[in-house]
Amino acid sequence: MEDQIRAQAAEWTGDVNEPPKTKNIIVLVSGGGTNLQALIDAQMRGDLGCGRITCVISSRPDAYALVRAKNAGIPTRVLRRKDFDSTEAYSAAMLEAFYEEYADLIVQAGFMTILDAKVCRAYPNKIINVHPALIPSFCGKGFYGLHVHEAALAKGVKITGATVHFVNEVCDGGPIISQKAVAVEPGDTPETLQRRVMEQAEWHLLPEAVRLFCEGRLTVKDNIVSVSE
Ligand code: GAR
Q1: 163 and 130 in contact (C-beta within 8 Å)?
Q2: CA-wise closest residue to 177 among 152, 203, 206, 154
Q3: Does domain 2-227 have CATH number 3.40.50.2300?
């Protein structure tokens, strides 16, 4: 027992009275922002650990997600892809914004624009994405938003769901943090299925993954994520 206490004391480098360092979360959005709202609500409940959403960056100036951010008093920025000549130039501007905002974690919450490998390399296992299917099904280039649910219905799958994963150079190919299955019901349209996947999976998985990250409980080894107690 004494050995255990001594070992813990040797590992401890902080002051007991010091609160854990706040982690700055930057949320990237492109549309309605219901996943952003789930994160804001979780933060209000105190469910993001030491994480704070300090900036929302939208790829579209008309995204309703920006209204949600403003209502919550969160600073916003807009970076439109069409204002830049290339994916590289757009990614460089994004990276600059991350540095200016002292980002500790970047969350892609319905962000529909592609960033280049430089961004992933600058923030390894520090960018989280939510995808509306059970990866490796219905993912990769062209699978985003409603298209994912259209493809799931066209295939006739009986179970779909959502995945939260770290972002790497491969589109939807980064280490998987969490997944939840959702039933496809007879008569589903892409819209009804999208809503069920959001309600039953995405809005729970994403804030939970962000909390685990902020608590320092996610480890990645050989592309596999483990969660410590
Ligand atoms: C969500 O279903 C999200 O999983 C998906 O877009 C929707 C955004 O909704 N993201 C992707 O398809 C990314 N590949 P929201 O703006 O209401 O959060």
Answers
A1: yes
A2: 206
A3: no
Q: What is the CA radius of gyration of the chain?
A: 19
- CB crowding 179-216: b at 16 or more within 10 Å, else e: bbebebeeebebeebbebbbebbbbbbbbbbbbbbbbe
- Length of the chain counted residue by residue: 229
DSSP state of 215: T
pTM for the predicted model, two decimal places: 0.92
- Ligand 1 center to 153 CA (angstroms): 17
> Ligand 1 pocket by C-beta < 6 Å: which residues?
31-35, 65, 109-110, 130-132, 144-145, 148, 194, 198, 202
> 10 Å Cβ neighbour count for 132?
27
pLDDT digits (tens, 9 = 90+) for 77-120: 999 999 999 999 999 999 999 999 999 999 999 999 989 999 99
- DSSP letter for each residue of 163-189: EEEE--SSTT-SPEEEEEEEEPPTT--
Ligand 1 atom index nearest CA of 36: 18
The token pair that represents 28 in the structure block: 């990237």
